[in-house]
Each structure stands twice: as structure tokens, then as C-alpha cells.
Amino acid sequence: MKLKFLGASRQVTGSRYFLEAGGLRLLIDCGMFQERAFLERNWEACPVAAREIDFLLFTHAHLDHVGLAPRLVLEGFTGPILGTPASVEIARILLADSGKIQEEDARYKQKRHRKEGRSGPRPVVPLYTIEDAEKVFPLLRPTPYEKVVTLNDRVEVCFHDAGHILGSAMLELRVREDGGGVRRLVFSGDIGQWDKPIIRDPSLFTQADFVVMESTYGDRDHEPLGDVESRLEEIVNDTVARGGNVIIPTFAIERAQELMYFLSALVYQKRIPNLMIFLDSPMAVNVTDVFRKHRECMDEETWALFNAGQSPFHFPGMQLVRSTSQSKAINHLKGSCIIMAGSGMCTGGRIKHHLVHNISDPHSTILFVGYQARHTLGRQILKRPDEVRIHGQMRPVRARIEQIHGLSAHADRNALLRWATHLQSSPQRVFITHGEEEAAESFAESLRQQTGWTVTVPEYLEEQNLESNKS
Question: Is residue 94 domain-shared with residue 132, that is, in the same domain?
Fold first, then answer.
């Protein structure tokens, strides 16, 4: 068996792993690179010939895990793409939306370049189009949780709930060796937090020979989850008192719905004033419909809210915005409001337009509720610079900048250790990925000290021979 790391190596985005095992060539995730320093990798051909890949297995429908699937298909991949039923539905929405954003951003950039009389190193074209994204759809194969799927006579895969977003999964691969023994490989995907609202807790494993696990928050712990509502209440009330808007860069999948969950509680309990709350993201609106459909993925507390007639996705003041004209109209309203818009790291989408209208207003608040990867606009704003570049122009940063950590869909350091150390026997090797270098190295060292295991932080394009357990 050979494992090659094609992304998310000493960085957070671009999750992509190539596994040769049991006579198959498998790609686990096919994620987009979102840090500015690595955007060029999105335009490069997959380091493994797309036509020679037998299956694509994806852990969940976030762009940094499945966003390059249209490029893979354009390069000649024709095999099945396996994901959980909810993930497959969300992936259709996500990829179509991504194709649309790629087209819109390319048109906007072309217009700006013409106006400025300049050109870049290559023609401005979309990374892929809506039509390209739709070519992925016939290949998608819904795969239920806990069902063992036979890929060939030597390889099986099973999807387990990751507790990260709706439909997210951890992959357990079982590979039968020539001598009859079975090797187990576990790909954690993104590990969620325990006791989070809406979805179920992460799955745990007792046995694995090789583990590939994330480390996004491997060097820190979150604020207590109970503080989220209070912090959100405080920020909203303070901003409204100043006469400003609360602008929340929001990931359309899970984070938007989780924010709605907390805001609905504040509304029902009358802890914030009556005001308009906008979810300005067609994709997030569509994903919310998927949430309503897949209640089997939700925890008991969320079921109880639905049964009590207090849906976290439909409450007074909540407005779901689909059209561009509706989005533009928000910025002409008088009075304070809450605007949730994508993308979550401010790398594209409608959030940039709302930032243009609010980031220089000292009455408004820019509230971050998710991880901001290095080299993204969101990370830049978090540093509270004097100005930032948005849509080709420098904008003064005068708005209040706030962040709530407890909303993260990722496990923190202690939860990651809890997940890993549930294994009852020592794995041969643990590979730490999907974290900035400092976080990945810090978590790897914590895991080594606690367990004595062999723990590695692989480099980009590094290959490991799993048979001999040597590089």
C-alpha cells in the first residue's frame, strides 16, 4: 500500500490523499486550495493521472474537501464518487454554486482589468463553470452511514458520522492483504465537537493500523460552548445600540444553520431586539432545505425543538435571500440588521459586497464565527489592519472586529486527543494533516507524548509506503 499526500499538508485547505491499495487507486477527498499563497495549485493538473483513479471517496461537502472534483472530471476521471446521502445532496448545491461564483468572479475581474487597463500573467477565466460542475453529478453515489461497501474483492469502505457538518463522515478502509490479513486505514476527515447543536457527536474507533487525522485546532482549545449565546447576544445588542450592522462571514454549510439555531434561541427568549436577520446566500438557503429533509442526521435536542414548533430554521425576523437584487437591497435599508453571507473566509461571494458597505463604518461589527486560514481576507481583517484590499480597492478598517470561537465545527486539541486515544491498540503510524504547520506540529507532539505512537506531519506530495512502514 502507498499513500501520497496531495493537499492539506502543513496547511488547512486542499484536502486530497491518494491511496494505492488492494489493486485499486483511490482518491480520498479532492479539495480546493483556499489560502492565497496556494491558489495556483487549483489550476495545476492533479498530481495523479485522473483517468487512472478508480474511485473518489469524499468525507464531506466543503470546498476544501470536494471543490476540485469538477477539475478532476475535466481531466478525465470517470469513476464513481462516494459520499453520504446528505453529502451528495449538499455537494450538488455546493459545486454548482462554486461554478457560478467562479464565473461571476472571472467576469468581475475581467471588467476591473479592462477599466484599469491591465492584464495578468494568464487570461482571466473561471477555474470551472456551472456546466463543468454539473458533469460531476452523474458520478455521485449516495452511501449510507455504517454500510460496508465492497470496492473490489480486497477493499471495503465504511462511512461513519464525523459530527462536523450534516452528512460529514470518517472513512474506514479495510484492505485484505495477500496473506489473508486485513489492514484498517481511518481517514478522520474533519472531526466535529461533542455536544454541539443540531448534529450527532463524532464516531470513535477502537482499532486502526494507519490513521490520517486533521489538526485544525491542534494547538488550542475552544471557548466553552455555553458562552456562544451570551457572546452573540452581547455583540448584537452593542452593535444595535451603536446603530450599526452585524456582518457575519458565514460558511453556507452547518455554520449558517448553527447560527440560525443560536439566533432563534435569542429571538424566542427576547434577548435581542426585533430586527431583520438575513441569510444572504442562495447556497446556504438551499442547504438549509437539505437540513430540513435529513432530520435523521440530527440530535435529540434539535428534534425536540421541531416537535415544540420552534424550528431553528424559521423564526421571527429571519429572511432567506436568494436573488442578487434582494441582496443589493439589504444595503439600502435603514436601521440595524444582521447579515450572514458567504464565503466564510471572505475569499469570494456576497460577503465581499457587504464588507465594502460596512467595514469602514465604526458603528458596524464584523463578526467571525469560523476558522480563518492563513493568507485569506478573513485572516487579514482579524488582524485589524488600517486597511484591506476588497474588489481591487483599499478600504479603511473602522468597523469593530470580533470573533467567537465556540461555534467552530472542528474539534479542539483536547477533543482531538480524546478521539485519537480511544483506539485500544497502537496504530502503526498516525499522519497529522489539515492544519497550519504550527498547529499540526504542536498536536503531533502532544499525541506522541501522551501515547508514544509514531506520529508524522507529512509534506506536500510526500509518499509513504505503508507495507514496510517506511517513507
Answer: yes
